[in-house]
């Protein structure tokens, strides 16, 4: 007979005990589905590097939004892929640009049930693929870009977006957009600061998905993966500028940053499980190397455990379905 009295395994002895003791729970309302809508197509088209994810037509997007609402998700985040691109990303501010048209469609369809969100960044709309406009020397001009972001914010709010995802990593972007919206009488529109967005290889499949024109990289504006303290600093700055929510992105390789930000943030903290994180699991699962569904749940649970209040994930609808039937 052993004299052990402290037996942590008591907490793991049965499914019922484990279920009661779980520290982290997932709820469909904490999941946000990112979607891509492409101008000029009539049918959804698969994205090769993101198996299971498609380029939506306006029609299939409408159906996907309804499905997301029926799944009980918290929100849907729209990305647009225009047919024409130019130096300043005109399509981003055109009310008839694909993202703004799609936002109108989705807001009309599910605007009551879901928080309809839009990516506020120029990279999908510029012919050079950068997140801002360029100075004559080819560098990304921070303050000229802020002017474009202000205009883009108004266009997106007019289209019916309830929450703008500021993913461009320009200095002062949250304050600039907040001021523009407030001046236009739109203090109701929420701002998500992609506070700690790292220059990551895990955006690779996304760049395929948006047919990115980018030559070079985004290292003069996105964070260096080596830096943890700087991620915290960016979150502090976004909060000071009035961000309603802050984001850490990508998720899995930045759980320390996420935990740091979550430990001190006075506002909700979200994480974006990006395209490369999705593609890795799908590719390994397709090879039979991991149990796909368990791996998917484990990644999202880990992101929540690290401190994310909500998670943007391409698996949102599927996972919500599992959560409801469990
Ligand atoms: C920029 C943006 C990016 C992603 C979302 N918004 C990528 C980038 O900086 O190239 C990546 C999302 C993903 O990889 O899933 N508009």
List keywords for this structure.
326 residues, alpha/beta, TIM Barrel, eight-stranded parallel barrel, 11 helices, 10 strands, globular, binds ligand PBG
Structural write-up:
- This protein is of the alpha/beta class.
- The chain has one domain (25-325): Aldolase class I (TIM Barrel).
- The protein is built from eleven helices and ten strands.
- It has helices spanning 15-21, 58-70, 98-110, 142-159, 173-183, 204-209, 229-240, 255-264, 275-286, 292-305, 316-325; strands at 31-38, 45-46, 54-56, 75-81, 115-120, 163-166, 190-197, 245-249, 269-272, 310-312.
- The protein has an eight-stranded parallel barrel, surrounded by eight helices.
- Helix 5 links the parallel strand 6 and strand 7.
- Helix 2 (58-70) packs parallel to helix 3 (98-110), helix 3 (98-110) runs parallel beside helix 4 (142-159) and helix 4 (142-159) packs across helix 5 (173-183).
- The longest helix has 18 residues, at 142-159.
- The radius of gyration is 20 Å and the shape is globular.
- The relative contact order is 0.14.
- Ligand PBG binds at residues 119, 121, 123, 167, 203, 206-207, 218, 274-275.
Give the spatial strand order of the biggest sheet: 1-4-5-6-7-8-9-10
How much helix, percentage-wise, in residues? 25-40%
Shape: globular
Tally the helices.
11
> Which class best fits the helix and strand makeup?
alpha/beta
**At the fourth CATH level, what is the homologous superfamily?**
Aldolase class I
The CATH class turns out to be: Alpha Beta
Rg on CA atoms, Å: 20 Å
Number of strands: 10
């Amino acid at each position: 007979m052993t004299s052990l009295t402290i037996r942590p395994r008591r907490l793991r002895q049965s499914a019922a005990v484990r279920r009661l003791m779980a520290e982290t729970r997932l709820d469909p309302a904490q999941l946000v589905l990112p979607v891509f809508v492409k101008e000029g197509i009539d049918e959804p088209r698969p994205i090769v590097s993101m198996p299971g994810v498609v380029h939506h037509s306006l029609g299939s997007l409408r159906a996907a939004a309804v499905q997301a609402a029926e799944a009980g998700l918290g929100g849907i985040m729209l990305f647009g892929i225009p047919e024409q691109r130019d130096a300043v990303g005109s399509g981003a501010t055109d009310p008839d640009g694909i993202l703004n048209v799609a936002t109108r469609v989705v807001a009309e369809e599910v605007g009551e049930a879901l928080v309809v969100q839009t990516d506020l960044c120029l990279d999908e709309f510029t012919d050079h693929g950068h997140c801002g406009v360029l100075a004559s020397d080819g560098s990304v001009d921070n303050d000229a870009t802020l002017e474009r972001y202000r205009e883009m914010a108004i266009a997106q709010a007019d289209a019916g977006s309830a929450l703008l995802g500021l993913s461009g990593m320009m200095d002062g972007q949250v304050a600039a957009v907040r001021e523009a919206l407030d001046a236009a009488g739109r203090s109701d529109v929420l701002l998500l600061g992609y506070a700690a967005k790292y220059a990551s290889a895990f955006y690779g499949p996304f760049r395929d998905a948006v047919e990115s024109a980018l030559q070079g990289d985004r290292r003069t504006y996105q964070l260096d993966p080596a830096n943890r303290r700087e991620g915290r600093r960016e979150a502090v700055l976004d909060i000071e500028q009035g961000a309603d929510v802050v984001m850490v992105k990508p998720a899995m390789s930045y759980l320390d940053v996420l935990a740091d930000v979550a430990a001190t943030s006075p506002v909700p903290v979200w994480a974006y499980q990006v395209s490369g994180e999705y593609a890795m699991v799908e590719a390994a699962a397709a090879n039979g190397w991991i149990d796909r569904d368990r791996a998917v749940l484990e990644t999202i649970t880990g992101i929540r455990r690290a401190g994310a209040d909500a998670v943007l994930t391409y698996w949102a609808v599927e996972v919500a379905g599992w959560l409801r039937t469990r």
